[in-house]
Structure to design on (468 residues):
């Protein structure tokens, strides 16, 4: 039975934990965008009463990096005796006073772990309730730093464009438009796997594109421009897709001890690079009057920006955790629930602060809402359609007599999720996870058959799973 204590939701299976993490990241994402909309419209304003997007970007990044670091330190608070015992043992070992006692203690711990391998896991740090892998702030390896810096680079570009767009774009329009990243991730998967899109993928892409266009139409006001929509398609979503790809690279990279970087550290280090890039992109647009706005609004914007950045940090931790459990496109599909959540948030925001959360008005407002509703449904349905078409296949394989099998070679094949040695007629159990059964099954089987140690293959498609 799976160890439930290694998951933040103790009595929930891995499958549903993955869904909850992705969906929560989407819901929290919609809330932080709403907070940013309010802050930019009500507080960080130039002398003409319009949002100063460059001041807002720099304030958010500077406040965000400080708040995020403090939050990571709070998550590092010990909640058991184990961290303190390990610290004092290391301290004594360094001084050379109790080396033998330390070794004895380690042996006792190893014996206890051997005797009681199924003992209930106790969290050592507060942050392990969010991510069980969290062991405090860590220094990434050189390869991790490479992926983190590239991830931060494109995240910085994405963030810079984000602050420009939310100045004029309605919340109910921005959230559906931002989900177009799923299409780019799908295209990236197709290119990597060298396969052609199947019917359901083409249908989903058409639904998403059409839904975004319908959600963006607003002929009751001239506030929205088609140039902004192009900026969403060509810059915001492209940079977001590349960011996700490099984030996936980060969490797949292991250190010398075979450990991956936890989601909390992944977010913290990514934010460091992202802050640098966003500030660098914003500085050329800052004039003397803008620095006056920066100083005059900093105090008023401190609390809402801090709240938004904490929510961003939590959402990204949940997102990276989900990303470590499933495919990029599927995670983004589930987090697209923000498309639906954005509408009630915009309505509530308009009810409380009508001057800052603008909604379509006038004689044809009903038509705009109708188009937005249809657009949101199309986007959400198209994205979920991609995730619902995913299938899992169990492959049973025999190993040629007298040959050793290489698990790493099998796992390196795109689409292979798990490999296990079994007893009986077959020697290996290989689990494949595909977006559709016809999309990449044959190429994967062909790659498996080319392996010199594979003698025979039999496949079975999973119709339904029951999780403990």
């Amino acid at each position: 039975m799976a160890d439930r204590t290694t998951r933040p939701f103790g009595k929930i299976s891995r499958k549903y934990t993955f869904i909850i993490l992705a969906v929560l990241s989407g819901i929290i994402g919609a809330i932080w965008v709403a907070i940013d909309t309010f802050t930019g419209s009500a507080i960080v304003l130039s002398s003409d009463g319009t949002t100063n997007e460059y001041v807002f970007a720099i304030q958010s990044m500077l406040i965000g990096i400080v708040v995020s670091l403090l939050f990571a330190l709070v998550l590092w608070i010990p909640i058991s005796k184990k961290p303190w015992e390990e610290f004092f043992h290391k301290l004594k070992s360094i001084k050379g006073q109790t080396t033998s006692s330390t070794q004895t203690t380690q042996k006792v711990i190893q014996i206890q772990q051997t005797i009681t391998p199924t003992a209930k896991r106790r969290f050592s740090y507060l942050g392990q309730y969010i991510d069980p892998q969290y062991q405090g702030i860590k220094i990434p390896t050189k390869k991790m730093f490479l992926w983190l810096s590239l991830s931060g680079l494109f995240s910085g570009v994405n963030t810079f464009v984000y602050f420009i767009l939310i100045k004029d774009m309605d919340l109910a329009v921005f959230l559906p438009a931002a989900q177009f990243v799923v299409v780019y991730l799908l295209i990236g998967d197709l290119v990597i796997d060298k396969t052609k899109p199947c019917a359901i993928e083409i249908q989903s892409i058409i639904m998403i594109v059409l839904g975004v266009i319908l959600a963006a139409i607003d002929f009751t006001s001239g506030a929205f421009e088609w140039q902004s929509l192009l900026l969403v398609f060509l810059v915001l979503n492209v940079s977001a897709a590349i960011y996700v790809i490099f984030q996936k690279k980060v969490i797949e990279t292991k250190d010398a001890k075979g450990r991956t970087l936890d989601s909390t550290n992944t977010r913290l280090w990514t934010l460091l690079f992202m802050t640098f890039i966003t500030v660098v992109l914003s500085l050329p647009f800052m004039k003397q009057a803008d620095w006056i706005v920066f100083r005059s609004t900093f105090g008023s914007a401190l609390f809402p920006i801090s709240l938004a950045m904490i929510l961003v940090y939590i959402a990204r931790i949940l997102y990276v955790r989900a990303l470590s459990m499933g495919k990029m496109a599927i995670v983004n599909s589930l987090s697209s629930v923000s498309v639906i959540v954005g509408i009630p948030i915009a309505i509530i925001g308009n009810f409380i602060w009508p001057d800052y959360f603008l909604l379509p008005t006038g004689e044809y407002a009903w038509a705009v809402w109708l188009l937005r509703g249809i657009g949101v449904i199309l986007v959400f349905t198209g994205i979920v359609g991609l995730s619902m078409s995913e299938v899992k296949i169990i492959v049973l394989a025999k190993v040629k007599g007298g040959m050793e099998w290489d698990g790493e070679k099998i796992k390196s094949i795109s689409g292979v999720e798990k490999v296990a040695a079994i007893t009986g007629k077959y020697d290996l159990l290989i689990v494949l996870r595909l977006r559709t059964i016809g999309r990449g099954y044959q190429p994967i089987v062909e790659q498996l058959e080319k392996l010199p140690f594979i003698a025979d293959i039999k496949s079975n498609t999973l119709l339904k799973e029951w999780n403990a």
Q: What stands out?
A: The first helix runs from residue 14 to 42. Residues 82-121 form one domain. The longest strand covers residues 391-399. Residues 153 and 203 are 32 Å apart (CA to CA).
